[in-house]
# Entry
Amino acid sequence: MINNIQYAVSEARNAARVRHSGLIGRIRELAAEQILRPVLPAAFDIGTGKIVDRDAALSAEVDLVIYNRDLLPALMYSDRDGIYPIESTYYAFEIKSECSSGNLADAIEKARQIIALDHSQKESYQGNKSPAVSVFFAFGSDLSLEGKSEFERYKELDAAWKDDPVIKVICVVGRGYWYFSAENRWFYQPATNAFDEVLILVSHIVNTLVQRPIISDRPAPLFGDYLRPPDE
# Structure
């Protein structure tokens, strides 16, 4: 895992030399995918694209989606580009080369679009909760090590950060990992030379994927909801 992370970080940082924004983004996504794909449980897959609800509302483009193929089929246009039903989506990643105030603000707005999507269990997901957990992941930061933390910057951008944040998971390589737990508390993993901030992120995601399909908060969705004519 450490070797995979080291390689992914190196590739993401080298991508800046390409000087092609679309290709740079693609390299970042592939680098992050290389960290996650080898440890995903069998029913789960990774893609990129948009998230859709049963009323055909779409999210903004999502850099990396972790979804469960056994819950609802995704509409795939290639082996990794597609549209993913909200009920079968577990994580939605915004991936950046560098964490900045602008990138964080953009990620918060995209996460709000995901939260607004409709689904069969909407009434049980109050506030900023969604079946798809929004993750902000960056391979570096524009902040100095002596200045404020990435989390302090996030707090300035999300008024609901303390009790019901829009983005529940933040990981910045070399700076740390923050996540909002089921106990409604923020937890922090400092960065280390062995990339513990990324290792703990991956372990928490995999643990969640293994546990959530067998508990009652994710009942089997109805594919027919996506095939019915739109309401007039």
Summary: The chain has a mean pLDDT of 88. Helices lie at 2-14, 21-36, 101-115, 150-157, 196-211.
